[in-house]
Amino acid sequence: MTKQEEFVKQIENVLNARIGAIIAKSILKNNLAKLDKNIHSLKKDDGRILIENILKAISLFGTKDESGLIKAELEKSLNMLD
Hints:
By secondary structure, this protein is mainly α. The chain has four helices and no strands.
């Protein structure tokens, strides 16, 4: 598994734990499609944009505290990308 695949998998795991599998998969899939890039070509800037877009989507139905916790967990995974 490449670093980019591990990065996406880690994001999926965090979202599954915090907001549920169905919503997590939908949000992740939609935001990956917005990037219009292959997972294997993700760079650190792309990961940052992906996380920002995911947080915007989560903020529509989550509390500020939940969004803050998710943001902290997702930003830890940014170090996986070059």
